Amino acid sequence: MALKSLTPMIYTKQVEETVKFYTTVLGFTCNNFMDDWSWASMSRDEIEIMIACPNSHLAFEKPCFTGSFYIQTDNADSVFDQLKDKVKICYPIETFEYGMREFAIYDNNGYLIQFGNPV
After folding, report:
1. Whole-structure pTM value
2. Cα–Cα distance between 80 and 103 in angstroms, integer?
């Protein structure tokens, strides 16, 4: 049995606005969506993500995730330069003792996204 990939699905009551953030700010492509904007699928390079309005079986008040989405890139400095004036920064570009050059932002829902590359 082989596990092939992991595609995160984030919940929001603002699916259309979230797709707009990921496409216009982060450069993703919206590959598919439901006409009522209760679900969408997006990708950029090798990254895939789904956005969904939670169904009535889930207790949902606001977006909440206890971790972060960590995206490895070949040039974190370049990505930081492209995003720094368009997003809310959690922490700016920095080289860490564990060998990664990285920074973190918040998406329009408050989800934490980190970008990094090995040094």
Report:
1. 0.89
2. 7
Residues pairing with 69 in the sheet: 113
pLDDT at residue 37 tops 80: yes
What span, in angstroms and rounded, lies between the C-alpha atoms of 6 and 72? 14
For the chain, domains (ranges, CATH) are: 7-54 (3.10.180.10), 67-119 (3.10.180.10)
**Structure-derived torsion over alpha carbons of residues 53, 68, 78, 18, reported in degrees to the nearest 10:** 10
CB 112 within 8 A of CB 69: yes
For residue 17, pLDDT over 90 is answered with yes
| Residue 23 · residue 65 · CB < 8 Å | no
